[in-house]
Design a protein that fits this description.
Layout: H1 23-35, H2 48-72, H3 77-80, E1 83-88, E2 100-105, H4 108-127, H5 145-156, H6 159-166
Antiparallel strand pairs: 1-2
Helix pairs in contact: 1-2, 1-4, 2-4
InterPro entries: DNA/RNA_pol_sf
Protein name: Reverse transcriptase
Length: about 170
């Protein structure tokens, strides 16, 4: 099978907006997150645990690969290709289409790269801006669903309700 055609490099007018160095730190953070999860392998057959172990020996090569992808603005097509698996829901008849939950398994190396990109985007938005809205809870460090629920709860009880009703 022939490799997919290369994507032409983007024409970068301003070198000040180049890709920052330090993919190694990003990679270690992404691998640490991968280590905490026990996920099924994607089409390449390599589970997350294998990438965690391989990152110790292949860390510099993997870092070079991810850096090259960032510099070229490429996300390899192979890392976006998934394997569809149907998981049967308990208590449903096997001949019913609604008895199955479709799950797409992706290669772990693609997930690593996505985490590197997501971490860099969040870091850039927080540091350089424009920062995310104060009411944005998804994709924010040190913000969770529980924080969002607590904010809604505070708005619907106590002082917030009193201020609205007196206005």
């Amino acid at each position: 099978m022939a490799p997919p055609p290369a994507v032409p490099e983007a024409d970068h007018q301003d070198d000040d907006d180049g890709i920052p160095e330090g993919t190694g730190v990003d990679l270690r953070v992404a691998v640490r997150r991968l280590k905490a999860r026990n996920t099924a392998p994607g089409p390449d057959g390599l589970p997350g645990k294998a990438w965690v172990l391989a990152s110790e020996a292949l860390g510099s090569r993997l870092e070079g690969l991810l850096s090259a992808c960032l510099e070229r603005g490429q996300f390899p097509l192979r890392w976006k290709t998934g394997k569809l698996v149907l998981i049967r829901k308990p208590g449903r008849p096997a001949d019913s289409p609604s008895a199955y939950r479709p799950v797409v398994l992706l290669d772990e190396v693609g997930k690593l790269f996505e985490r590197v990109i997501a971490n860099r985007l969040a870091e850039h938005l927080a540091g350089t801006g424009p920062d995310l809205a104060e009411h944005q809870f998804g994709f924010r460090k040190r913000r969770s669903t529980v924080d969002a629920i607590m904010r809604v709860r505070a708005l619907t009880t106590g002082d917030a309700v009193a201020r609205v009703s007196s206005a």
